[in-house]
Amino acid sequence: MKRIFSTVVALSMVILTSVHTLAEENDINRTAIDEAKQYLSGDVIISSGNMSSYTAADGTEVMLEWDNVYDCTIKDEKGMYRNDTYLKSDGKITRPKWFEGTKKLKGDAKLTAGSETDEVSDVHLTLQPPSAPNFQNVYDYLTDYIDIGNTDSEMTVVGTNRINRLEVVRDNGIQTKNVEGVEHTYRTLNKNGAMVVTMKCDSEKTNYLTVKLWGDDTGDTMLWVCDPTSGNMNITNSSQPSRNGLVDRRDWVELNFLNASPQYNGGFIYSTYMIPKIYTEGNIQRAGMQITAI
After folding, report:
1. Is the pTM of this model over 0.85?
2. 284 versus 246: which is more confidently predicted?
């Protein structure tokens, strides 16, 4: 009997010890979650990494799940639109490209540490893009013509450096179209897609950007051109309030627009834009122009 009694007492001690340890663990997890909530209550600035977890001061890991993610880069709240391009539900971050600029996101986070959970609504995140490429000393590798869809024309490799004459985000990839027996390569920008072309220019003359488009296309897309670094075409005015729920393009230039009727049946059209000299004068030997589809 003593042996049995002793065993029961020992078992009780083990149970009590386990309960005490579980309670301590819950306290640790709750403290970690509260710390994560405090972190998420401010404007979270992200320049690298993901948002799939938060590590508390004591090393406890809090897992993060995201929902209701909106792009609210435009200060006017009416300009927000649901968009998980940059932040997925599992917390994976896709940083904006250098010419997209800083992105402002808003979303709801679910926090989990062990058996403890909590939620934070309207978390504000700022995603910082990488720095713009250094285009110094690349003039000899630039061209005054880019055959879009031709990878040899869009970029070149010099030593260990890759020089992108064209960079693109949110397009349908390289496609081909046969026109009168000739294969043409092209790219189609999706809504809010953009491409940047970096080309040779003459700093002492007026330079023009000409874009070759398919005349049979229809829809409601507009193509706008702007400076990829400042995000506008009037370098002295960087204000970008919202209009129609999107970035104000009063500083942008309309390059082309689509409607229900083709602009030219069965053939190409050419849209030309005169680049302001402020972007090409002086010692500048290249012109970088961004084309955005809205």
Report:
1. no
2. 284
